[in-house]
Amino acid sequence: MNSPKHSPRTRPHSARVAAGLVLLVLATAQHSAQAGSREQAKRMYDRLTGTPPAPLLLDDLTVRVGSDPVAAALYMMDAASARSSSFYSVTLKNFATPWTNRDQTVFAPLNDYTATVIGMVRDDKDFRGVLFDDIVYIGNGTAPAYSPTSNAHYEALESNSVELRTALVERAQSSLNGLPPTATAGVLTSRAGAEAFFIDGTNRAMFRFTLLNHLCRDMEQIHDTSRPPDRIRQDVTRGPGGREVS
Question: In terms of Cα–Cα distance, which of 28, 86, 55 is closest to 41?
C-alpha cells in the first residue's frame, strides 16, 4: 500500500489528534458552552494529566484556553509529558487501548498496537500513517525481544514500569514480522490488531473496527442501499467444495 505524500505545512500531527480528543470530551461531557475558560482549562488539564493544576498554572492555562484552546491543549500535553511519564503510560495508553480489542475495553495489556500509537504521538508523526506505514514501536533493549507470536515483550515493559517516553523506539514492521514492506499497514498488521480482528476467516471485523476506531463510523452508516445486492461478493466459504468444517 502506497503512503500518500503531504507537505510539512499541511501535515496533521499526532499531537493534534490527542488534543482534539480532549476538546471533544470537553465539548460533550458537560455543558461546556456555558463553562468559562477557567473551568475548561481545569477540565482539560485533569483529563490530560490525571491531576488538577496548581493555582498559578491554572491562571496561565485559563488565559491560553481563552485565546486558543487547541494550542492550550498542546501546551498542556508538553507540560504533562515533561512533568511525568504517566502521560504516556497512562493517559495515552488508556486513549489507545480500547482500539485494540473487540470488547473496546481499556483494561487490556500494553501491546504493539498501543505502543505504536503512543510512539507516533510522542514523535509527532503524521497520524494517518497509523493505518498504512511500515512502522511499529518496541522497547529499546527490553527482554524478551519483540515477537510476532507473543505479547511478552510489551508485558515486560508494563510489568517493569519502563518509561515509555524514553524506551519506545521506531522500527520497520516488515523487519520484525516477516511481511514484505508493501504488505504492512500500520496497526492493522500489528500482532495485537491481527489477533483481535482477523477472525472467522474474513476481514469483516478488521474493517468494522477500523471504521469505528479511526473514522467514527459503523458499517451500517456506510452501506449503499441504492444498488442491487446481486453483485455483492460473498465471504470466502470456510468449507471449500461443500465440505463441513468443525
Answer: 55
CA gap 47, 36 in Å, rounded:
17
- Judge contact between 132 and 186, C-beta under 8 A: yes
- What is the spatial distance between Cα 22 and Cα 95, in angstroms, rounded to a whole number? 10
The beta-strand segments (E) located in the chain are 136-139, 168-171
Torsion of CA 206, 209, 215, 221, to 10 degrees: 100
Q: Under a CB-based contact definition with an 8 Å cutoff, are residues 49 and 84 in contact?
A: yes
Exposure of 23 in the CB half-sphere (CA atoms within 13 A): 14
Q: In angstroms, how far is CA 86 from the centroid of its own chain?
A: 16
DSSP for 124-175, please give it.
Answer: T-BGGGGGTSS-EEEETT-SSPPBTTB-HHHHHHHHTT--HHHHEEEE-THH
Whole-number Å distance between alpha carbons of 167 and 138: 8
Write down the mean pLDDT value for the chain: 82
Q: Which residues contact 16 (CB under 8 A, 6 or more apart)?
A: 70, 74, 127
Report domain extents, the chain: 14-84, 94-213
CA distances for 76 relative to 173, 189, 232, angstroms: 31, 32, 49
Rg of the chain's alpha carbons, rounded to an integer?
Answer: 21
- Residue of 129, 98, 134 whose CA lies nearest to 114: 98
Rounded to two decimals, the pTM is 0.74
Query: β-strand 136-139 against 168-171: which pairing, if any?
Result: antiparallel
Q: What is the pLDDT of residues 9-33, one digit of tens each?
A: 344 555 566 556 555 555 544 444 5
